[in-house]
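Quick one, T. Sequence first:
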Amino acid sequence: MRRTKLNKLALLIIVVTLISSMACSNQKKEEFSEDVIEKIDSILETYDFKGTFLVEKGNKQYIKSIGEYSKDDIKYPIASITKTFTAVAIMKLYEEGKLDIEDKLSKYIPDIKHSDSITISHLLSHQSGIPRDIFNVNIDPFIKDDTLQNPQEFIEWFQSLDIEEEIEYLKWLNEKFNHYSEIHDIIINSDFQLLFEPGEQFSYSNAGYSILGKIIEEASQMSYLDYLNKVIFKPLNMKNTWFFEEESGNYSRPLSDKYDNEEYFKDLRINASNLSYSGGALFSTVEDMLKFSQVFTTEKILKKETIKKMCFPHKYNFGLGIITYPRDYIGHDGEYYDEFISKLRINTDEDIKLIYFADTSVNEIFRFDERVHFQIYAAIKKE
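Structure tokens:
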């Protein structure tokens, strides 16, 4: 009889806990005051913002999508914010004891050049000396008798093409590299020179973060996306974050006329997923990115001491996959061709999250302008 009562009591506690948890998870955010909403509306209008914009302070939230192809639940390319996901995955493996951030690259990818002098920490903090991008692709018949090594030369050449030439090149490239894992072969087989001795200076490196993706796969014995799904997406209920999937049509597109070409739009996204990989290939929504911010405001994914280690600034305010900004904000930016800029800002002390995807094909003011952020922070400060 006593055991039956205890079982009923235990069941009751479980039910109440579940109901309470569901209530919390389904709790709607409150709106800011009319005055704050008007101020934010005015700021976005002043800068002719196009895209999706979200700012949250405590339980109050402002979210707005502006533009023909912008919606609250639509997927945008988050570009280099992918690097923060990659860094979180590395730090999770660190917590699990599957790697140490002071491990040499040679432990995981011995065939890559300079692997005995570069650590995981160097890669995370952009202090490896590995060039920003490693192009070792002979692109004949597009540039005769030439192998591109200089990323700026490549960008200038690509931008000089007309729309039909761009499509032709993208199709060729997507056939040549039809899976993101092949970017590893490009890097591993490249005879690149370090820009400096590892740890001595800072130089932003997309290639370094592609290498981190391979390390995640070696240490976890899972694919990059499967490991992110296991340790980040599922625990945070992020259902709209992944690489580009052609069958999922819920993607935003820039307002610039050239993106009306469906073939160009699709090929560009396939190309980004294949070549950007763990350095910039993820697509997401503002709501999913808000869920991701919990990595730094709770201990759902990482321990407090691990988060502190990530956020400690090394050179130029870069930590381990996360950047420290003025006024105690952390986060990362992403830039996707000349289409979108993505921003993630988190202030853990004041419980503020600022997340937006801006269409820069029609307006570049949001590209690197912190004035916009400061005006938003001032608008919500007293709420």
